[in-house]
Amino acid sequence: MSRHQKIALFLLFSPVLSSAHEGMWLPTVLGSIQDRMQAEGLRLTAEDIYSVNNGSLKDAIVLFGGGCTAEVISAEGLILTNHHCGFGAIQEHSTVERDLLKDGFWAMDRSQELQNPGLSATFIIRMEDVTERMLGSVPAGADEAARQKALTTRGQELAREAMSGTHHQAVVRAFNYGLQYILIVSEVFRDVRLVGAPPGAIGNFGGDTDNWMWPRHTGDFSVFRIYADGEGRPAEPSASNVPFRPRHVLPISMDGVREGDFAMIFGFPGNTQRYLHSRAVEYITGTGDPLRIRMRRASLAVIDEAMLASDRTRIQYADKQKGISNAYKKWIGELRGLNELRTVERKRELEAEYRVRARAAGRSDLLAVLDSLEATYAGFPAVAKARDLHVEFHLVGAELFRFASGFQQLASLEGRAALEKEGKLQQEVDRLRAAAKAFHKDFDAAVDKRVLLAQYPIYREHLDPTLGPDLSGLDKQFKDGRAWADQVYATSIFADADALDAALAGYSTKVMRRLAKDPALAFARTLNEAYTNKVKPRSDALNQRVLVHMRTYVAGLMELFPERGHWPDANSTLRLSFGKVEGSRPRDGMTYEPFTDLDGVMEKYRPGDAEFEVPGRLRELHATRDFGPYANADGTMPVCFTSSLHTTGGNSGSPVLNGRGELIGINFDRSWESTMSDIQFDPAKCRNISADIRYVLFVIDKVCGAGHLLQEMKLVRQPAASGFLIDLPIHR
Ligand code: ASP
Question: What phi, psi does 265 have (nearest 5°)?
């Protein structure tokens, strides 16, 4: 057996050894953890969860857009995801006059459902381990470049083979730094319509203040519907499409959850980095996180203030602000968590032990790779910092320059000539004109300038001229950053929607010259060129070297530490985590109960405070305790619960299921003390947060008056003794 074969086998069987509840398991290995899951309360088999040939749970799990999860809850294509996942779509349909973000939206019949161009819903058809076929394509003695080339070619062949004669998509993805390869065949639907969203005061209740926090009281959900052609196949958005008929629909449990109940989550976790070297974690805690936090704190102070001052700005910046603040707050929690867990020291201890074991095993190759990794990381901090600084300043910070970058081609003779030669000039002008309209709809130049001014001093403080732009020319020309910013925003055509539109409408050589001289575009060019020439090549080369060494290092960890249990880092592929409904003791002297209820919403209610408003109808139902069939046995109305499921971003919107595979909640967050789990999971502290599915139903039905949707769902209740499943008649 080759070494690669041994590793592939190891990967297949290693999950059994994992520590409590850590792990995001590939559906293809569930057979190996079935016993353990069943011992903890699973009533299904691995085949019920993931089957290639029969309808199984996986057929109800949807990759929503590019970065969230959704689940199928009706035989007519209804899917449930988070409010924060549907947020972009909800925002797109919102105006000051018709503010869906604030007031919510419910389609009262199918004709009112709203199309969302660009939004997709992806199902996994099958996943297949193709490690041997992939690695078999690599010629003996191939260097890394030749290896990558062979793998790319083989991957494309395998994908083509899988797609041939079908309407499916296929891709081969690398796992564990290229120790394992899996072919993923999927079906992508592109007609995904908005069916409903609760008012922002429910879907985003608690806002930034409560984000990443427990106790939580957010009804973070929204409802969409997948449409297909007459044959049930993906089709471009069209009025003639019909609701998609799924292969599996999740039953919805009306029984509620109890502490200690088995729970599992099935979805598309985005990104974890559990095998990082101590040097990489040192960079994150010492430099990366603190720098990114500081840059975002500066921009958020401006944006938050502007959003509070004006409804127009609030709507314009809602989606952008959410993206910036979500990661900002997460990094604060992550930094604290990694420091508290002493992750750097623990990694160093692991690396020392790795050396001891590698030496004892006579594995000089495994020893050598740790040396190589350390040597590679010596050059890492300066380059990583330059990259992070560029990302935060240019790609996340003031938007004007980023926007201007898109016009580079139209602003240069060569760019223009190239477009003309291809006969695509007019097409490009039209495309950018439309893009500019969309951009300016959500742009406020005064706010953007303030963002720039807030970040600029931090940017300059950290800028290393050998790894960034030379700004001495600017410094000579302007007395300070403010004088420069005043001039840019007063004169750049990109800050002026009408002027830009008129210029593009009559695009000519003269316009080209004007764009070429534009100060925002000039600065964007300076930033981009510095990044492309000074940072990117070094960063790419370093990352490539790290990747190669990590492949051997991780193989070494698996071999030398079999008792630890290993699973491949999350990479937006379908995974299952399991655990139970439980609270936690996040730090000394603190206990988190696992449940919240509607009384807690009312405790937080602060009239006039945008984050803690409570809609009148919800207050009314609370006051009269009119909770319909959705209440707990003790008469309280459940809202959220925590469980010990290993999750990350991308699990947003994932279904949380009981042992029978029934929906009990929709995952939307983790507690602040959990956010280091992308790098180090702590079973005692890490908890994911879900909206109780009964709260979701209650809001749809009793608060929003869209109970007709429940007619499509399969609500089930488990009779106390008999064990038979019964469909629950809906009564309101
Ligand atoms: N709330 C998170 C997110 O949106 C989900 C998580 O990371 O647990 O990224």
Answer: -130, 140
Q: Which of 126, 128, 129 is closest to 9 using CA atoms?
A: 129
Q: How many residues does the chain have?
A: 732
The model's pTM is 0.90
Element (H, E) at 174: strand 169-175
Q: Which amino acid is at 581?
A: V
d(CA 1, CA 59): 35
Residue nearest ligand 1's atom 9 by CA = 649
Q: Indicate if ligand 1 lies below 6 Å from the C-beta of 652.
A: yes
Q: Distance between CA 345 and CA 432 in Å, rounded? A: 51
Count CB neighbours of 491 within 10 A.
13
Q: Element (H or E) spanning 281, and its range?
A: helix 278-283
The rounded distance, in Å, linking the Cα atoms of 161 and 174 is 18
Residues recognised as catalytic:
84, 220, 652
Domain map of the chain by residue range?
21-120+190-273+575-732, 278-553
The hierarchical CATH code for the domain 21-120+190-273+575-732 is 2.40.10.120
Q: Whose CA is nearest to atom 3 of ligand 1?
A: 649
Cβ neighbors of 501 (< 8 A, separation 6 or more) are 433, 436, 437
Task: In whole angstroms, give the CA distance from residue 600 to residue 609.
Answer: 16
Contact of 192 with 116, CB cutoff 8 Å: yes
Question: What is d(CA 82, CA 473) in angstroms, rounded to the nearest whole number?
Answer: 48
**For every residue of 136-168, which 3-state class applies, written as one string?**
CCCCCCCCHHHHHHHHHHHHHHHHHHHHCCCCC
Report the 3 state secondary structure along 330-343: HHHHHHHHHHHCCH
Q: What is the pLDDT of residues 82-139, one digit of tens each?
A: 999 999 999 999 998 999 999 999 999 999 999 999 999 999 999 999 999 999 999 9
The angle subtended at Cα 456 by Cα 450 and Cα 460, nearest 5°, is 175
Tell me which residue of 69, 97, 71, 98 sits closest to 84, measured CA to CA: 69
- The answer to whether the CB of 670 is under 6 A from ligand 1 is yes
CA of 667 to the centre of ligand 1 (A): 9
Residue closest by Cα to atom 8 of ligand 1:
669
Q: Is the CB of 241 under 6 A from ligand 1?
A: no
Contacts of 200 (CB under 8 A, 6+ apart): 83, 101, 102, 103, 104
User: How many H-runs (helices) and E-runs (strands) does the chain carry?
Assistant: 28, 20
- 720 — pLDDT class (breaks 50, 70, 90): low
Q: How far apart are CA 447 and CA 258, in angstroms?
A: 47
CA angle 252, 42, 22 (to 5 degrees): 105
